[in-house]
Amino acid sequence: MRWLKFTASGKTSWGIIEGDQVIAVEGDPFSEWRRTSRTHPLDEVKIELPLIPRTFYCVGLNYLKHLKEAADKAGTVPAVPDRPEIGYRAQNALIAHDEDVVIPAIATEKIHYEGELVVVIGKKVKHLTEANAMACVFGYTIGNDVSERSWQKADRSLWRSKNADTFKPMGPWIETDADLARMETIVRVNGRETNRFRTNDMIFGVVPFLVELTKYFTLWPGDVIWMGTDGASPDIKHDDVVEIEISGVGTLRNRFVREGR
Amino acid sequence: MRWLKFTASGKTSWGIIEGDQVIAVEGDPFSEWRRTSRTHPLDEVKIELPLIPRTFYCVGLNYLKHLKEAADKAGTVPAVPDRPEIGYRAQNALIAHDEDVVIPAIATEKIHYEGELVVVIGKKVKHLTEANAMACVFGYTIGNDVSERSWQKADRSLWRSKNADTFKPMGPWIETDADLARMETIVRVNGRETNRFRTNDMIFGVVPFLVELTKYFTLWPGDVIWMGTDGASPDIKHDDVVEIEISGVGTLRNRFVREGR
């Protein structure tokens, strides 16, 4: 099932995508809901951010090629993590599919994309096991972990390099039936492919992360875990359009514009 | 004005504290509200977490003594930050005044408190200036940035050391009329004073942080900024009660219990 948050005729609600139509739903997928008789053509609705997570989790280094490229740039030896560790991103930075990433006027040219699988949590859970972990996953969406690399290098934390307003596009919808093992992530800049990797080739996969996180944290419905990215990005310039496709999930597309241009 | 989120007679709402009474309010302080005729004695209501912030900001190193003690323990030279930088904490970890901090069974004995002033944002703002920054501040509350120091040392990030469930007590209420310049932070363990510092003796104060953050971030009503702590903490043990008082704001009190004890 494909869940879309959308606006049509001035009304924002959840809906289910069937073919090229959206069936509006009353309620929300995390609690009570029912189909209505209201439908809209998918290409005539405004796609909204699926949700604002209560806690916004994000894995830093979770793919070998990305790790190696980051180490090469820093002139260091890649240190492969020996256990799953999580980071955070900031809710202020979230935008929807087709909304613009605004590169701050004071940013350098080192603006990079990171195409990431996003795990959407559906249940309140703690102390998960390998056997039951996947039952808390509601579905998957797509994230672009936009980064300003000069700030990332200069700062003690990832605050502005990863969390400036509009730096976290997420969407376009939540797919509940996608198969992790068959997913491929493909990134295109202005229609030209720049990255391709098997989405599930993670150093630590979704299950180990869910087990490790819930030793310490309660996960809540609507929490998201961004699973990291592989490979590297060219510098993204004003007016470039970045598309991140994950097979079986969808394609997240956002234009980048420089503030004041 | 002193704003309290509370539960009485099975109903949770906002209220205003006047003397030893709470006057229940319809609505919330960030939008429309009006007093009701319902009042309760303050000592008969359950004090709730004032809010769950949209984005949960927290300053790491913002007082000289804390910086020096952290550096001494690490065997390094204290590096005083040359500009304001922000970090994040996780919403899952928040608990209210008088709720228990649960030390995970797998944690070491190195459990420390950090008494912090919490700035509560009241308006949606960006690009603040020194002259207008304070106008976005709704009021102040108190936070205890509980930390497991062995994890903090062992991990690449602050994920479990600072964000395990119950590690972020916040409250008891929001005070809108407190005067930063006159505040003193006093910490007591089981009634015995263990720390005292001038709350506003920050390396970077509230105004520089608001100006710097809003170069990059939109702040939203209900966002919180924890401003860091001074000094050090003894190891907190099962059944210890930690109180953090900030003059003009109030006292946040929480018992620490070890999981499974």
Q: How would you describe this structure to a colleague?
A:
Chains A, B: Residues 1-48 form the Rv2993c-like N-terminal domain. Chains A, B: This is Fumarylacetoacetate hydrolase family protein. Chains A, B: GO terms for molecular function: hydrolase activity. Chains A, B: Keywords: Hydrolase, Metal-binding. Chains A, B: Residues 56-256 form the Fumarylacetoacetase-like C-terminal domain. The structure is a homodimer of 261-residue chains. Chain A has 261 residues and is mainly beta. Chain A folds into two domains: 1-48, Roll (SH3 type barrels), CATH 2.30.30.370; 49-258, Fumarylacetoacetate hydrolase, domain 2 (Alpha-Beta Complex). Chain A is 11% helix and 39% strand. The first copy, chain A, has four helices and 19 strands. In chain A, the strands form three sheets. In chain A, strands 1, 2, 3, 4, 5, 6, 7, 8, 11, 12, 14 and 17 form a twelve-stranded mixed β-sheet that branches. Chain A has a five-stranded mixed β-sheet with strand order 9-19-18-15-16, with no helix packed on it. In chain A, a hairpin with a 2-residue loop joins β1 and β2 (11-18). The N and C termini of chain A lie far apart (40 Å). At the A-B interface, β7 and α3 of A face β7 and α3 of B.
